[in-house]
């Protein structure tokens, strides 16, 4: 009988080591700046919680949620915001935090939208990048891990809202078990 099996891709310790390295770069780049960290719900919540606690400068935090069209967040290259930030971003040093960069449609749409609000600066930090899946050109400023085109869950990432709680990133596959 076919079922779903998982296999560890990134253990918790490796993720935390990399999160600490990313935080060190962010700390260096943002010292003296007015850092506003905006997470894209839901997938980013665990990564963002770990990241802001190891960044060595003060930050304020907020979240956006993008509307879904069935299982996708993007229709004809345009995003619609379900929940906007409460904080005005004009003049702020904005760092958008995402769990995964896949086709690039979500982040390119969100970045375009946020740029229209005139932040002082805007950068993007992603935990995972699947460059082979890109449909629109997009490069994140901070990337935790570049990964192959596998369906990944855990550390905030889901499959039908399941598995977000796994401490590590796992590959989800059909198994014969
Ligand atoms: C994932 C992820 C990004 C988006 C990336 O969200 O969190 O927002 O897909 O894909 P893209 O580069 O192809 O646009 P998902 O739709 O799984 O929602 P969730 O964050 O609520 O889990």
What does this protein structure show overall?
The chain has a domain at 12-72 and 92-147: 3-Layer(aba) Sandwich (Rossmann fold). Helices cover 23% and strands 34% of the residues. With 177 residues, the protein is an alpha/beta fold. Helix 1 (12-30) packs across helix 2. Strand 7, helix 3 (105-115) and strand 8 form a beta-alpha-beta unit. It contains 3 helices and 11 strands. Bound molecules: 1-O-pyrophosphono-5-O-phosphono-alpha-D-ribofuranose. Residues 40-43, 73-74, 98-106, 158 line the site of 1-O-pyrophosphono-5-O-phosphono-alpha-D-ribofuranose.
Structure described in brief:
23% of the residues lie in helices and 34% in strands. It has 177 residues and is an alpha/beta fold.
Topology:
Elements: E1 3-10, H1 12-30, E2 35-41, H2 45-54, E3 60-66, E4 74-75, E5 78-79, E6 81-83, E7 93-101, H3 105-115, E8 121-129, E9 142-146, E10 152-153, E11 169-175
Helix pairs in contact: 1-2
The chain binds 1-O-pyrophosphono-5-O-phosphono-alpha-D-ribofuranose (PRP).
Bound molecules: 1-O-pyrophosphono-5-O-phosphono-alpha-D-ribofuranose
Question: What's the assembly state of these chains?
Answer: single chain
CATH architecture designation of the domain at 12-72 and 92-147: 3-Layer(aba) Sandwich
Strand content: 25-35%
Q: Span from first to last CA?
A: 6 Å
> What is the overall pLDDT average?
93
Total number of β-strand segments? Answer: 11
Count up the helices: 3
